[in-house]
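<goal> How does this chain fold?
<body> The protein record starts here
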Amino acid sequence: MKQQFSNADLEAYLDESLSSARLANVEAALRDEPGLVDRLATLAGQRDAGVHSLGAIWRRQRLTCPSREQLGSYLLGVLDPGHANYLQFHLDEVGCRYCSASVEDLREQHAAAHAQDSESRRSKYFQSSAGYLSAEE
């Protein structure tokens, strides 16, 4: 069955802001449907000519995306429930690739910092106990 894609879907495709699965669906449809390729070319031409809707500007500027600080607070679990629910929706249901990449980066930074702190703590314990250990034990 042929999938239908709205102009908003195609504009999101141009902005690379679709989820991976939806992006793959559009790319597969573009290979099979010359009419869809024409629609995409028309939208790209309008964009290049300076024809922008309020919705297109909203999506392109990612006005619904939270800040990196908000994403960090979300990962730490310190947001109020309503805001946390919105972020969960934004990441899981909307599938924002920009925010998902930012969350993954924050997780990697946290893991790296935690590993470094752990090693630093271990080194300090060994250094502080060096004089208390005897060879007889």
In short: The mean pLDDT is 83. DSSP finds seven helices and no strands in the chain. Residues 97-129 form the longest helix (33 residues). Residues 64-129 form one domain.
